[in-house]
Amino acid sequence: MLQVGRDEVGVTPSPGAPVITLDPYSDEVMSNPYPYYQEIREAGPLVWMQKYGTYAVGRYASVMRVLTDHETFCSSAGVGLTNFHTETPWRKPSIILEVDRPEHTRTRKVFSRILSPRSLGRLRERFEQEAQAMVTRLVAQSVCDGVRDIAEAYPLKVFADAVGLPAEGREHLLPYGDMVFNAFGPQNDRFRDCLARLGPSIRWINEVCQRKNLSEGSFGAELYAAADAGEITHEEAGMLVRTMLSAGLDTTIFTIGNALACFARYPDQWAAVRHDPAIARQAIEEVLRYDSTFHSFYRTTTQPVTLEGVDLDKNQKILVLIASANRDASHWTAADTFDVHRKPASNLAFGTGIHGCAGQMIARLEAEIVLKALAAQVEVFEALGEPELHFNNTVRGYSSLRLRLIAKEKRA
Ligand code: OVM
User: Fold this and answer.
1) What angle do helix axes 267-275 and 360-377 make, rounded to 10 degrees?
2) Does the CA dihedral 380-405-342-324 come out positive or negative?
3) Which of 255, 294, 303, 381 matches a 20 to 30 Å C-alpha distance to 403?
4) For residue range 19-70, what is the model confidence (pLDDT) as tens digits?
């Protein structure tokens, strides 16, 4: 499967790096990408993805190198395969994700403040009550779909409430998010099918980003308050609400679903969390390392640069495989083992550098609270059949996971 580009006839342009011929976006690779990531890592620190004409980094060290040098490897050409400098994006670029410094600094500052641990503190109690009530209900009914009834239901309630959305119309959030994350990949069938089904969701999203549709005291209201204070414009406030709705649902939903799938598959690991719920947060971190939700995104070179001994031109896309870095055996011991006792603090699931995930604290909060609520009430997770994978060009997760939840014995 791997060939060295320099020796290949007909490989254009001569990339100077090992050539990878597989399609990382094929169903086959996506069904289980980890063996392919290993091939990519073994081929070299920087490889050429022949099918898409981009470079890729899959080792921990090379992923770090790219993400921590935002001046050479920029985001303003888009963080998907589409190069905004030469191609038209499917929607108006994000003013926080798809920009560089100095523009990025101002929007990021406001956004980060609203999602800081300090301002999240007041959400914890409501989030916990919601999780406990959900788990009590599901344990009583015994059988549920862990994806629909837990992983989707929870963020669609608590996160959407926190952003300030109306209760009506939230069914538009997931088709929209699916599109956002498919659009970071190639314009393949998955992208086209998703766009064709999108219907009125884009219109609903743009509508609820307006101030009048956002509840008082919400993140959305705070973004508009920052506009009143002159930190950003009112139009930018609406764009940052759109960012919350784009980045904040599918990601946390798939993370919670991946956690459920891991614990259904490894009962001993569930037993460890059930016996010591204090490790819930670290266990979520291990889920994020072992089965990262956000698999990959791109950076684009701003100038000619030598990376890992290869001369790259300006305006070259580089695929950054963070899920691969999180399985790199040169960084992790027993990289392919799911172990909740590990302390995987250096995992790259939320990226790193100036564009490191701004919502990571609320993402962890939601997942941790769900896990703790389950640990308090559920003795055994029993998977009723295999989880069904949801195929998306950028995020990895499940569309269905039938579970039987067996309640803990109540002690007097
Ligand atoms: C945005 C956006 C969308 C998806 C993901 C993301 C990981 C941001 O619209 O700004 O960050």
Assistant:
1) 90
2) positive
3) 294
4) 999 999 999 999 999 999 999 999 999 999 999 999 999 999 999 999 999 9
308 three-class SS: coil
Token pair 């926190």 is at which residue? 162
List Cα–Cα distances, 92 to 233, 254, 391, in angstroms: 16, 25, 24
Q: Does 358 contact ligand 1 (Cβ within 6 A)? A: no
Q: Cite the beta strand spans of 149-304 per DSSP E.
A: 296-301
Q: How far is CA 149 from the centre of its chain?
A: 20
Question: Taking CA 77 as the corner, what is the angle to CA 254 and CA 35, rounded to the nearest 5 degrees?
Answer: 45
CATH number reported for the structural domain that contains residue 132 in this entry: 1.10.630.10
Model confidence over 268-288: pLDDT tens digits? 999 999 999 999 999 999 999
How many CB atoms lie under 10 A from the CB of residue 192?
11
Q: Which domain holds residue 88?
A: 2-410
Report the domain count for the chain: 1
Number of alpha carbons in the 13 Å side-chain half-sphere of residue 133? 10
Enter the tokens of residue 36.
């392919």
Closest CA to 402 of 149, 133, 178, 136: 149
Atom 5 of ligand 1, residue of closest alpha carbon = 247
Ligand 1: residue of 67, 96, 249, 320 to mutate (most ligand atoms within 8 A of CB) is: 96
- 316: Cβ below 6 Å to ligand 1? no
Closest residue CA from atom 7 of ligand 1: 247
Ligand 1 centroid distance, CA of 247 (Å):
4
Distances, alpha carbon 173 to alpha carbons 54, 163, 258, 323, in Å: 31, 12, 19, 25
CA distances from 394 to 177, 246, 247 (A): 11, 13, 12
Instruction: Give every CB contact of residue 126 below 8 A, 6+ residues apart in sequence.
Output: 158
pTM: 0.96
Q: What are φ and ψ of residue 286, in 5° steps? A: -70, -35
Residue ranges, the chain, pLDDT below 50: 1-12, 412
pLDDT (0 to 100) of residue 13: 54
Please report where in the chains the tokens 């997931």 appear, as a residue.
174
215 Rama sector, left if φ>0, alpha if ψ -120 to 50, beta otherwise: beta
